[in-house]
Design brief:
The protein is an alpha/beta fold. The chain has one domain (38-235, 245-249): TIM Barrel (Alpha-Beta Barrel). It is 44% helix and 14% strand. It has helices at 17-31, 45-55, 81-86, 97-103, 107-120, 132-136, 140-152, 181-196, 200-205, 216-223, 240-249; strands at 6-10, 38-42, 60-64, 91-94, 123-128, 164-167, 208-210, 230-233. An eight-stranded parallel beta sheet has the order 7-6-5-4-3-2-1-8. Helix 3 (81-86) links the parallel strand 3 (60-64) and strand 4 (91-94).
């Protein structure tokens, strides 16, 4: 089955509204004729409305970086799916390793967030991945199994293919380290096999991204892997030249 690659730039906590608009203004003409991949940016909450408005009529997807599973309630500081869909956000990143590490995001919470995003019409990007200690101790598959099974448990089998999964080797995020192509392919294939345990048909539809320090210099090799369907790009997404180069690398 042919899966359209997704190149998603995660801006993290970077960019005022003005800076976000300038970045998008530079990016839009560079991707206007891209047909081989879906392209998205994951934007801080404060800039979401501005970026959505700046990209209307374009093919650039606009994603949030987190959301709460409840549609409303006494959850100070949180943002809900209806708040995102109201301003025409397309998707949301869930369970990023930084959310897990610094803000206590749990697999149990993600078990509720992923189906809530789907039900609201948002494309969820569920992030999974192991720490350096877990890899060194041979626990990569155990960790991935737990994260994927928990995160997808409440997703109906027939909708599994709508969830984008991003494999993030945590030891490679922001460190300059990158999983070898063999390490990356093994993990990506294992994630797909976990989805296939629920539905082989949906597993073939599932887009699985690589999310560990993808850059122009390594993007082509990683994106050529059989089970790599794109990238969740961190630091390189803040540089338009680098980000566009990665989008181009997805041509294969």
């Amino acid at each position: 089955m042919s899966r359209t690659p997704l190149i998603a730039g995660n801006w993290k906590m970077n960019g005022t509204i003005e800076e976000a608009e300038e970045r998008v203004a530079s990016l839009l003409p560079r991707i206007a004729t891209v047909e081989h991949a879906d392209v998205a940016v994951c934007v801080p909450f404060t800039a979401l409305q501005a970026v959505v408005d700046s990209t209307r009529g374009s093919q650039l997807g606009v994603y949030a970086q987190n959301m709460h599973h409840e549609p409303s309630g006494a959850f100070t500081g949180e943002v809900s799916a209806p708040m995102l869909t109201e301003i025409d956000v397309h998707g949301v990143v869930l369970g990023h390793s930084e959310r897990r590490q610094f803000f206590g995001e749990t697999d149990k919470a993600l078990q509720l967030k992923v189906p809530a995003a789907l039900e609201a019409g948002l494309i969820p990007i569920l992030c999974v991945g192991e720490t350096e200690d877990e890899r060194e101790n041979g626990d990569t598959e155990r960790r991935l199994r737990h994260q994927v099974q928990e995160g997808l448990e409440k997703v109906p089998a027939e909708r599994l293919g709508e969830v984008v999964l991003a494999y993030e080797p945590i030891w490679a995020i922001g460190t300059g380290q990158v999983a070898t192509p063999e390490q990356a392919q093994d993990a990506l294939a294992f994630v797909r096999a976990l989805v296939a345990d629920r539905s082989k048909e949906e597993a073939e539809k599932s887009r699985i991204l690589y999310g560990g320090s993808m850059k122009p210099g390594n993007a082509a090799e990683l994106l050529a892997l059989p089970d790599c369907d794109g990238g969740l790009i961190g630091g390189a997404s803040l540089d338009i030249e680098d980000f566009v180069a990665i989008v181009e690398a997805a041509k294969g």
